[in-house]
């Protein structure tokens, strides 16, 4: 990091963003931006210019500002720069009509319809299955005394969970896991790999949805999320075939890398804070669940999976935090910076697993607030609690400096998390 925060007579030059050091630890740069350039124009690695919003109050306001559209048609840039929700390949596969790319009234209609199928009750009923999946994955490495918690645990858990919830037959789930893995591995890499994987997923989903639609109402028909989406209606309106495909796609991907990173970043933070982790383990051993829920919210605030909210575009000239933004300019709300704002959080750089006043923005805010938050909480809490209970002396197997972060724009997460424990 080229910045010197203590330069006499001034703040010094703006920190260099999007370097390897930044990917490893972006928080010093965000502290500088919050203080000296809270709404900061920068050139992204893709060459696109965008505004970064880093203060909590500005971020919260921007997330709920109807003048900031999610629809890439409002972007001034050439077509190649459009369609960036953080979900790779969606554009080439014709999957753009989903919640993260649309505004009211279309967004209101789709969100109301999906809410009818993706209910808190459905998620709560799914709890035993998430526990079973978690235990099965841990069984795979528990006797070995070592594991890579990203590849063997955090990566497969959310994809199997969402496949189950959607109603993907068990024999097809490994294919989806592999295609989804290609998307993440190739993210930012060769376009061909991503585009191929997304096309396969699209084709698979379209066929599965078609089969479920044919089968709807038949005796023994599945009561899964896809069938729920096909059935969902509001004032006689249904989701079109394409809308169901795009909805399943966004459910798969909005909940995939995010949950991997919640589990990965969360476990890493716990291993870096042994005293707090020990206290959490004691409360788990005593059968208390309250401290677990509070702890997972703090892990989200402290080092959350979504570094920046997905793209927004100014539909008219507007002002954020005193800075004028021109119509057509892209705006990225930096959740990771907002959630460490000392104006909002007491000692924000400190991990406090018992933190009470914790209205973090890790799941966003406003009409695009994370639809999957109840599922993410269920998976995050089950994964972390089960691992700490079953492998109580879990420890990092490499030096902190040897860990590699992915360095994408929207997401923040580890490539691998090698650990050791007593089998
Ligand atoms: C939206 C975070 C897991 C589905 C969002 C947004 C954030 C977020 C920040 C708002 C994006 C924006 O305003 O630009 C997270 C985190 C997760 C997680 C941190 C895990 C820890 C999930 C899961 C699912 C899901 C498991 C579903 C299976 C969605 C959907 C949206 C969304 C569909 C779009 C909602 C809309 O535009 O109305 N999520 N998410 N997420 N999330 Fe999540």
From TrEMBL:
Gene3D superfamilies: Cytochrome P450. Keywords: Heme, Iron, Metal-binding, Monooxygenase, Oxidoreductase. The keyword Iron applies. Residues 68-90 are annotated as: Disordered. The keyword Cell division does not apply. InterPro entries: Cyt_P450, Cyt_P450_B, Cyt_P450_sf. This is Cytochrome P450.
